[in-house]
Amino acid sequence: LRLVAVLKAILEGEKAAVLKRDRHLPLSFHRRQEELKFSLGLQRLQHRVREIQALRDGSAASPQLNVRDPQLKTEGKTPESELPTLILEAVKELEAAKQQVLKRIQIWKRQQQLAGNGALFEENLAPLQKRCESLVEVYFQLHQQVMAASAELGAELLPRLLERFNEVLSSLVKR
């Protein structure tokens, strides 16, 4: 009985320490802030995919396309030469969004572990699943644009992009 009392006291101490550490701001505040950051990054990524598609469609229709986006207006550069740069930026944003999802998965796993010590734990996986699904949807849209623009990308850049795409998808699936 004494051993049980000691273990109970230790676990209650751990529970108090966990609750004390996370009390400075409500967990819902952090979760909402993280959700907004992810949503903004995903919207930016979707916008990049639409820019790539518009650039591809416009360059196929007329080589002298007047691009409205100030990021794409550069002196002496044609829309075809901007396509690889735009795709690389989109892939960087895809990888950043993937890191946010993986970080959230890691947090969820840690919270599940702490639940064994009595910490509060929300078992709802719907928000995490929604993040993964929306990221994979954008992933496939971007991958489709890259494959459609494979002729403009060249033999050197395309394999590197495909390798980065495979790494993004495999890390999401594995975790």
Automatic annotation (TrEMBL):
BP GO annotations: signal transduction
Annotated ranges, domain STAT transcription factor all-alpha: 89-149
Pfam families associated with the record: STAT_alpha (PF01017)
Keyword Manganese attributed: no
Record keywords, A-Z: SH2 domain
GO molecular function: DNA-binding transcription factor activity
Organism domain of life: Eukaryota
Matching PANTHER family: SIGNAL TRANSDUCER AND ACTIVATOR OF TRANSCRIPTION (PTHR11801)
Protein name per the record: STAT6 protein
Gene that specifies this protein: Stat6_0
